[in-house]
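From: lab user (bench 3)
To: helpdesk
Subject: output format question, protein + flavin-adenine dinucleotide

Hello, I'm new to running complex predictions and I'm not sure whether the block I got back is the full result or only part of it. Here's what I submitted:
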Amino acid sequence: MSKTFDVIVAGIGGMGSTACYQLAKRGVRVLGLEKFEIGHAMGSSHGLTRILRLAYFEGEAYVPLVQRARELWIETGKLTGEPLFFEVGALDIAHEGSGIVEKALEASQAHGLEHELLDRDAIEARYPFTLDRNHVGLYQPQSGFVASERAILAHTALALHHGAEIHGCEAMLGWEPTAGGGVRVTTDRGSYEAGRLILSPGAWIGELVPTLKPSTEVVLQTLGWFAPARPSLFDLSHFPVFTLEADEGHFYGFPLWQHPGFKLGSPHYGGEAYDPDTPSREPSPRHREQLRACLAKHIPGANGDLLGLKACMYTMTPDEHFIIDTLPGHEQVIVASPCSGHGYKFASAVGEALAELATTGSSRFDLGMFGLSRFS
Ligand SMILES: Cc1cc2nc3c(=O)[nH]c(=O)nc-3n(C[C@H](O)[C@H](O)[C@H](O)COP(=O)(O)OP(=O)(O)OC[C@H]3O[C@@H](n4cnc5c(N)ncnc54)[C@H](O)[C@@H]3O)c2cc1C
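Helpdesk reply: Thanks, we reran it on our side. This is the complete output you should expect:
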């Protein structure tokens, strides 16, 4: 006989770990399944940190969700005794008129977020950037970064504390509906039954839900860590997270934290098509050159020796919005994946929304823009 749960969560990365915690906290009998070890570096959430920006230039409709996520990161960090959110401020730098700073300003104004518009001279006077003549910036003091690897472990620990069962190194192979309206899930170790199934497999969504393969594209991205000439310039106490629209691409970076190197991400739109089942994650040589070019031109104080490179995957949808919805024809199955390279900051709130969906059938958040019907 299969062991039975209220909810099974497949994929314990950014989204799945928070869903397990939120479900277990509500007294739900939850099983979490993860094909690698918990906290691995093969998915989309590793590399220590992820930016959390409140003034969302991707669409001001995201602001309430990211505000709730920020609250939850702070709350959960307090519960575990190790902060998960670091309020270092965020600076979006872009060419005037490109829409990025303008949309971030719109989001700030629409939601009453603290912000400061800076011209090129003001940015260069404050931070070690060398910018183009028409660069402008929007600074948001309440933004910062989330400790993503730490957060997955912390949420898993909290889920266990509340009675969840979590199985690392156990891959879900498939699922089928049961006569009672639930699901039977098969793994490489056994089978389980539950009333509901949450699929949060990140880049593997196309394997578990083949109908979503045509609407999702997995791309490889690269993170680099470089020795700064004067580490104090990039210290957590006064250097913010940033996004930088440059002629060479749209880069992003972080203050020094838990690593001696300055962390810079390869261009947001410069990913290379990738198969998530590739056995190891080799960083892209092209990305390495792009990172170097950005440092040389715009952040020369961090253009020192290479200390590390890591490859990571984005799972893109055509409109770059997320997928959070029940599967058509199978209300007992919820999909929470493809976060198009900007999803981590929301994970704490997505976990809460998933727990609400699985237990009550609806969420306090308007998840309409993440619905599957937009692909039909
Ligand atoms: C380089 C890089 C930089 C980024 N920067 C930012 C940023 O600054 N800010 C931001 O908000 N977002 C950022 N993102 C995006 C963000 O990290 C992702 O949207 C987020 O991590 C996705 O979380 P996830 O839970 O969907 O995927 P994952 O964390 O990868 O979790 C999916 C999990 O499912 C498991 N799994 C898959 N298939 C199965 C199966 N069959 N059975 C069991 N388990 C399975 C996987 O092993 C994995 O652990 C970045 C992404 C990358 C790659």
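A quick orientation on your result: The chain has two domains: 3-45+149-209+321-375, 89-143+216-316. Let us know if anything else is unclear.
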